[in-house]
Amino acid sequence: MAPKKSIATKISEEKELKAVVLADSFDDLFQPLALNKPRCLLPLCNVPMIEYTLEFLAASGVSEAILICKSHSEKLLAYIRQSKWKRSSTPMKVNTTVAQSATSVCDALRNIDESRVITSDFILCTGLVVSNMNLSGLVAAHLANKSRDRNQIMTMLLREAASSHRLFDKSDESVYIIEPSTSRLLAVNTSPSLPRAQDVDIPTNAIIYKMPKVEPRAGFIDTNESVYSPEVELRADLIDTHVSICSPEVLSLLTENFDYQVMRRDFVHRTLASDLLSSTIYAHILTGSSSVLSEATSAAATATTPDALIPAVGALDLSAGGGITFASHSGYAAGVADTAAYDAISRDLIGRWAYPLCPDSNPIDGPPYSYHRGAVYKTPSVFLGRESRVDHHVILGPNSHVADHARVFDSVLGSGCRVSGQSVVHGSYLFDGASVGRGSVVEKSILGERVAILENVVIERGCLIGDDVVIGPNVRIAAFSRISRRAPQSSQVPANNEFDSYSEASDDSDVEESDDSDGANIARNKDHPVASHASTSGQSGQPSSAGIEVFDTQTLGASGVGYVWVDDAEADSDLEDDISDEELDSRIRILHSIGSNLNDVELANAELAAEDSVEQHEWQPESAFVQDSQEHFEYELILTINTVLEGRSTEMTITDIRTFRMTCNADQDRIRPIVLEEVLNAIDLAALPSSAKTTLAKAVQLIKWGINSGAEQIDAISIIERHCATNPTVDDDVRGRLFKVVVCVLYELDILEDLAIISWYNRSLKKPDGEVSRKLLDTIKAFADMLNESEDEDESDDEDSSSEE
Amino acid sequence: MSSTKMDVFSTRELPLLIESFVSQLKRGQLVGSKTVAMNTANLLREIVSRSPWEDIPSLTTLLKAVGKRLLRAQPRELIIFNVVCRVLHIVNEDYSSVEVVNEEGPMSKKKGSASGASSASKGSETPAMGLGQPGTGQPRNLGEQVSQSMDRATLNAFHLKSLLIQEIMDYILELEKTEVEIADNAREHIHSNEIILTCGRSLTVEKFLKNAASKVKIHVIVAECAPTYDGHEQAQALASANIDVVVIPDAAVFAIMSRVNKVILGAHAVLANGGLVAASGSHTIAAAARHHSTQVVVCAGLYKYSPMFPFDDDRFNTLVSPDAVLPYGDGELIDTVDVSNPRYDYVPPELVDILVDHTGGHLPSYLYRLLQENYAQAKDLAWNIQDE
Hints:
The structure holds 2 protein chains of 2 kinds.
Chain A: H1 7-13, E1 18-22, E2 43-44, E3 47-48, H2 49-59, E4 64-69, H3 73-82, E5 93-98, H4 105-115, E6 122-126, E7 129-131, H5 136-148, E8 152-160, E9 172-179, E10 184-192, H6 204-207, E11 210-214, E12 221-228, E13 233-235, E14 238-246, H7 248-256, H8 263-273, E15 280-286, H9 295-304, H10 310-314, E16 333-335, H11 339-350, E17 370-372, E18 376-378, E19 383-384, E20 389-392, E21 394-396, E22 401-402, E23 407-409, E24 412-413, E25 418-419, E26 424-426, E27 429-430, E28 435-436, E29 441-443, E30 446-447, E31 452-453, E32 458-459, E33 464-465, E34 470-471, E35 476-477, E36 482-484, H12 489-492, H13 497-505, H14 518-527, H15 543-546, H16 553-556, E37 563-564, H17 568-573, H18 581-592, H19 598-611, H20 621-645, H21 650-664, H22 668-681, H23 688-698, H24 700-706, H25 710-726, H26 732-748, H27 754-766, H28 774-794, H29 796-804
Parallel strand pairs in A: 1-4, 1-6, 4-5, 8-15, 18-21, 19-22, 20-23, 21-24, 22-25, 23-26, 24-27, 25-28, 26-29, 27-30, 28-31, 29-32, 30-33, 31-34, 32-35, 33-36
Antiparallel strand pairs in A: 2-3, 6-14, 7-16, 8-14, 9-10, 9-13, 10-15, 11-12, 17-18, 36-37
Helix pairs in contact in A: 1-5, 4-7, 20-21, 20-22, 22-25, 23-26, 25-26, 25-27, 26-28, 27-28, 28-29
Chain B: H1 2-8, H2 13-26, H3 33-50, H4 56-73, H5 78-104, H6 116-122, H7 140-149, H8 152-183, H9 186-189, E1 195-199, H10 203-213, E2 219-223, H11 230-239, E3 244-248, H12 253-257, E4 262-266, E5 269-270, E6 276-279, H13 282-291, E7 295-299, E8 319-320, H14 331-336, E9 341-342, E10 344-347, E11 354-357, E12 360-362, H15 367-375, H16 378-386
Parallel strand pairs in B: 1-2, 1-4, 2-3, 4-7, 7-11
Antiparallel strand pairs in B: 5-6, 6-10, 8-9, 11-12
Helix pairs in contact in B: 2-3, 2-4, 3-5, 3-8, 4-5, 5-8, 5-16, 8-10
């Protein structure tokens, strides 16, 4: 794209805009469709999905797109090589990186960080994003905001929609907490919708979020002075579009936190939850779906520049008090995360919601589609029987054939698809070369390439049928079945140890990550041909290597070719009474599937509630981990503190503790007692006043780091008091002395302020003896009185307010 | 033909130019008939000047190939087709005139019919007569001598190129001035104290009304044209010129028609039968006007006149995102309700009384003549662009 000269976009011109495209999704929600091809080459409205993403990036003025792929990378490379993006006439470069060892999205991004190709802010999206937006305006807004808030690392693009919207991810529920005036994202709470969460966990730092005070003259945010934000929004009506604008810091953060797996749940959630990282994330919320300005305004705009979005960019308000201030909230952006989203986005494209991105705009140079009444898109080579009915929201690929008395509606037919007489295809997606036999019914399913459905077959909703499968005649395939030409791995070895180790290897608590990536699945197939019982049923669909194939002819019909994927849940349900993770998993997968609807969620939830009312604690794989990590954390912390007392530099230690906190997600209130206890333990009681002074002086930085506000100081005094009063290693007669000395030294070291000591003292006086030792109070009485008097001299009002506290 | 294509595309920048134009079309960045027309004409001029074509047939093939590419990118955009046809016509016309000069000598024998369109607008100054144009400055005899001594193809390419570029430049100039020239006719159609109804946003109509209002007092009623609400903009533009403007909802059009003296509409394109492709809402207005026997005046530049016939109402319409009609965020409704949001209406020719272009008003039945002058046999040449 030609560079545009406008004040707002100048910032973005300093460096070329790059984009990182995650071409692998590291889950198996599209299996078995993506067994032979990377997911991003599967057709969406008969166009490979990656084309939409690349077109979107090119339209946004991206100069270089970096594709990260893993499974079937050679096919993706081959595709990109022959695509129009490699021709000299395209201004956008497309480079492909193969991340062979990556096991998760964040892993793949770490690879990018290593290769150091990203040096400036970039667009991050999956390879399955469909959008009609020009993001250059939003990138400019992101950069403009960055100059105000230096901690900004990310701007997420979210869409606002009612919760019943078809694009909504039914498998989990997210609550976004946003500060509306700056659209800063304060917290994200994501919980799986199965079993339904009863409550929402809202971090307190989000509610009493301190808004950085904006220095009006300097123009950037002063982080020291803060004011409480007047309002926060809790929103459950936002859909993640899988598009975000990131700073390079995002990549280094991912490298530091090697345990992150998924972008939203791990990275965004934990970055926001951490009160160590001062990084901020902003959200830009889309409300409308059309990207085109009205004819006359754009005509006026194009008179000077060819880009219609310039006025929107010009609307950037640089004088505002912070936050993303991009005027345009209109545009379509959505990511194909699962087959349910695949269905929703296909219907959006057919229904022209993403105009100008619709089937008849012919995104690739294939045979042109033309629009006909009722949103039927046809290529010129389509054959329609005289008595056929193709009436509503249909795309017919080149050379597709619909015979007499067949009915096709709400569906997409790839090239060379054949639908025979008396059959019905509804809400389904037929890839190239699929055929439906006489009298068959296909309902809300996806049929892979060259799938042959023979006569009188009923495919119920939500089925995913892989390439080259033959089904029929005269059978009924149950809803949400998955059928592939090759034998599936998991159903082959349900009782085998192999399987157990496999499921342990992946993170069970994490739905999206519970299965390996497309590529890994296949790799496994190849790696363990012996372990996966080649004897029972011709392994991996190669008759030459395994003799005669035995197909699941019982379910697939007499001429059937293929295997039904047995749900893990069914295999396990005999063994266990309560709901296993696997079953939950498969239910959640159903929610991801095409053809699922909200009723399914309700139904499944109700079932779960009935079956699992007692076993509620079962679904808490995290609690054990939390407990475990807690102990580990304390142990590590104590070791670290001791190194300080032995003379190590406190700076280093504080960095270490920070890192612990991040990994264990501990908060300050838990660290403080541990730090203080350790320091107090180190005081040599025999040589009291001097030893306390030296020990505390050594650890002054460390203590100070954990104690800032008045409330924290009061808390610290209580901890010291408890230590002095109850620690068994302290002799009874030195207790009072120790307490007094420690408090005095800390006062001298400016860690405790007089106000805190006085208010703690006043407060403790009212407490019963069990909570506060009277003896210790007496020892400090003189000191407190002394402070009180000096305070009185300064200001008489202060005492009242402090005693009220 | 493929070999020709290879040859002519050997220049580096041309494919880039075409591709960037195509992607702008696909991304919806080029909207509005004027913008599209100007950009297409500029692109074609670049192609004529930069590609190393040797003779007229190869240039024609090239232009047709490019036209095909553009039309595939945006099959509904009639304006592209019009401009491609027009440029083909210009090329064809020059070619035949050069042929005439070469073969028959004195150009006076050649009839001026082929250059009718340009001469109709520009009068005698048109350079359409090949080597006889004033720019060459040399006596005709010399030109003939030179032409005989040189290889004819080279000569043709050599002379024709500058000639053609000049012609296309004239065409672009003509495009630029269209609105102003149409507006100059305003006084013939608008009289004092008339109440005029219009709809949507049209720069042509805006200039037309402003021109009239500068001389006589008029009252304008603007239908707002939901869901784009372009009418608001139009009203604002008119009010800034101190015109008495009232904005009404689209539903009130019929009710108010009895008070209206004249309906003035803009058009996106004018089809060969005299029907219009105009902002949605125009059909209602034209029908209401017919019911009340109110005159309907359509202001449209010559470049909007298309040689296409409307065999299918849907073919030339553009359906944009239904978001403006039904918000996309409304989950349950978008699942159950089909919403379509057509950008244009087809207005049948019997509802149109007068078409005003820069030469003055015409009856829709006279359109065939204008098309003949504008495109001549070029439309037949271009016809197979559409047919693949």
